[in-house]
Every structure is written in C-alpha cells, then in structure tokens.
Predict the 3D structure of the following.
Amino acid sequence: MMKHTWAVIIFALLLSSCLRMDSFLYNPNTDITEYKLDEFEGETEIELDNSFDLPDSTLHLFTLNSDLDGDLAEIYAVYVGDISSISQDTVILYLHGNTGHLDYYWPRIKLLANTGHKNRFGVMAIDYRGYGLSEGTPGEGALYADTDAAMKWLKENGLTADRLITYGFSMGSAPATELTANPRTLQPSKLMLESPFASDDVMIQDASGLSLPGSFVSDLEINNGDEIRKVEEPFFWIHGTDDDFLSIETHGEVVFNNYDGSYSIAHRVQGAVHNNVPFVMGYGVYLDVVLEFLERTP
Amino acid sequence: MFKRLSILVFTVLLASCNVSRVVKPLEKGEKQLSASFGGPGIVFSGIPLPMPLSSVGYAQGIDTGLTVSAGLHTTSLLFGVAQLDAGLHIQLFENKAQNFGMTAAPALNLFYDFNAGNMRTYPQIDLLGWWKYLDEKQHFFYAGGGTWVELEREKAHEQVQNHEIMPYITFGHQFNREKWSFQIEARYIGMNYRNDKLVVDYLTPFNKGTSGIYVGINRKLVK
C-alpha cells in the first residue's frame, strides 16, 4: 500500500513539475554594464561602414516602464530620430530577435534609420525583459507587454496609429504580428516581418519529422501562422531562401500564404540564411524595397 | 539568431528513442526488465552529444519464438507526455548450427500529452538479424532496420505531411551474462529527411537524418 502511495506521489510530482522547453526560445545576453551602440566592439548582427552613421543628436537611449499584468519592469529602449517631431513623423518599431541585446542589433537599427535618407523615418527598438540591461525575465507575455510599452511611449510623444509600422525579425515576428492582429495601445498601419516563424508546432514538426504537436515540449502560444489571418494592414515579408534555422518553406511561406489582408509583398532573397538577408540582398537594394513598402499608400 | 542554442532540443524524444528492446526472442516463460539510455546525436553549444532519452521496459516470452514487450519512456514523462510502446518479437527463423537468426518486431507507440490532451500513435516495424559469435557466452552482434509510420496526413497550419515513414538502420552488440545483459547500439535515423534547415543541429556527416547511440541493460527474471 505504502509503495503504491509513493508511486502515485512521484508520478504526480513528475507531472506537476514538467520540463518545458519554452525558456530555450530566449537567448539574451546580459553581460553588459552599459549600452555602447556605435562604440560596441562585440559581435553584431550585421556590419555597417561609416556611411550609415547618424548624428549623435538623433540617438536617444532611455528606459520605459513595462506592465505585464501588474508585474512592472524597467526596460531599455532606443529611439533614432527627433523625439519632438514624432507627432509628424512615421516611425518603424523594430522588434529584434532572440539573441543578445540592443547593441547586437544596433547596426540593423541604424540601417533602417537610413531608409530613404538619414533619419527620414524614426526608428525605435527595445530590449525585452531579461535582455541587455532590461529588468525581468524573458517570456511570451513579456514580449507583448514590452512592445506595447514602446507603443505607449510613442503615443505619448504624439505618434498616431496611421504612422506606426511594426517590423519583426525572427522571434520579434511574434510581438509584431500579435500586436498588429490584436492591437492594444496602437493599431500599427503596416506590418513587416523578416525571417518569421510560424509556430512552435512547425518548429517541432520540422525537427522531429513527425506530426507532433508543440504542446509535447512547450507551452508557447506564439502562432504567427494563424494570427496573421487577422491582419488587414499591408504586409511586407522578406526571407532568405537558404534560411538554415527557420525554413522559408515551412515557416515563412506559411505566414505569407495565410495573410489575407489588403496588400502583401514578398521578397525571397536567394542565397540568404537566417540573419544575413540585408547583407546578401545588398544594403542599398534592401533599403529600396523597405522604402517602397513604407511609401506605398493604402 | 536562435541558432547555437538548439531550441527544443528534445523534440526528437520520440522516434527511435531506445535500444532494440528484444533482439532475440526470450525463452517461453522467461521475463526481462530493461532500461535504455541515449538518443539521436545533436550538436549543442558546439558539443556533439546524444539526446538524454531514457526508457524502461518489460518483456516476456509467450511461446517459443514469440515475446511480448512494453515500455515507458521516462524522459517524455518529465515533459508531461506519457509515451508508451508495446510490441511483439517474432523469431522468423534460427539456424542453430550457424548461430544466427532473424526477428521481426511490430510495435505500437502511443503518446498522450497531459498538458494539452494531444495524442499521437505511430506503428513501428523492425527487422533484425543476429549472430552469436561465441556460443557458450551467447554474445551476439545484430543489425537491421525499421521504421516508424506516420498516420497523420496533415501538419500544423493545414500543411500536407509528405513524410509517411521515419526509417532507420541499426547496428548493435549484446553482451549476455546469466541474468544480466548489456547492449550498445548505433542508429542512423531518418535518412529521408533533410536536416540542414532546422532549429536542431543534428549530428550527421550528411544533410539528411541523424545518427544516434544508445546503451541498454537487461535483467532476466526467474521463470
């Protein structure tokens, strides 16, 4: 009888403390004591020459308060542009991937701030909870709360929904899609996704070769493949044909094909892998296609 | 990006996740407990290692040349997934003069996810040839192949499941003592699957499938 009791207890403990792979989604770097932006000497996502440098007066590093169901955290943000003219400017909210911190993505943020010409568009980016110097722990809810905190700040500084564009790269495609499909503070007017993933179901099915549900190892509810169906706003998708991490066929094409909104444009970049799309495309060509989409009137 | 972290490294907690549970059918009435550890090889943070998959099993000789077995996959259980297998091990023939034989092993793999209530079923068939090279000690090499069968025709987001089987080839050796036996087994799994565009870095010299290494320990019980 005692044996049976212990067996039941152990089994219940096993079930109640299940391992989940959710935390493996996040790969933050917190080994910094300050953001260095242009002076950062570590590995960055892409490399830019001096021609993309921006006036120091347009670089603004600050903190935001993010509220995740009452769990407050101070997160870091960078705004590139003139804060006093946000009430007239169009702003790209760049939502980075799962690696590193803002310094790692800083060249990409600068690159976007060169769209059209220097500082033609405002560009904002944040470090999600647990990334860089931002407080807290990474998590799916945190991605959405932190992104919404950025939108609140933009709104407080005069941005209106018709001039907000969300740009999500890889993991950043989750908050970009979610907050465009299910807006909170602002309804973005356009959605741009680079190398997005469809869902954890696809990740697991790709990895296993079998039709396994994502729930076998993860509690993630990120589902860009389905959420994109709710998006009516114009949609820009760009993905490397040789993406060696999130396959263009099983992830990107699914997201793109499930979009049924007002306008969509796809850029399948031959030979590009997961994180070198702008480089393979050529920065000039990349900025041209971004500009073309941004300037397109509904 | 996500790369290098090998997100969801345990996603292959399923196919081919234990040593061949019974290579040579047990004697009639013979019973055996077993444990298996190992799995498909991945490169995790630059280090090649097998996935730490584990299972325990039970087998019983029903008749001459016919054994039944069942297993519980303990790593899956830690993820809240009840993964069970049950199968038959049928001696197709045995050449006692030459000390070799062949076994067929149809099985069924069942999964139930306590988190979301999802279920999956995968039939499996193995065909193994064995050769006892030292008759008095009963050690033997074995080799063969098998496959899991995919019953679902649709994947996530209404995508077509084009892969109908998950084949593998197996090479192993079993050291037999009076009551205990030990197995070491290598597998090449999923040679029909491309592996170069995945979140997991599988360990293989090719751009298809993955290799795996497994060890097993068996304890025969008194008849």
Observations:
- The longest strand of chain B covers residues 119-134.
- Confidence is low (pLDDT under 50) at residues 1-14 of chain B.
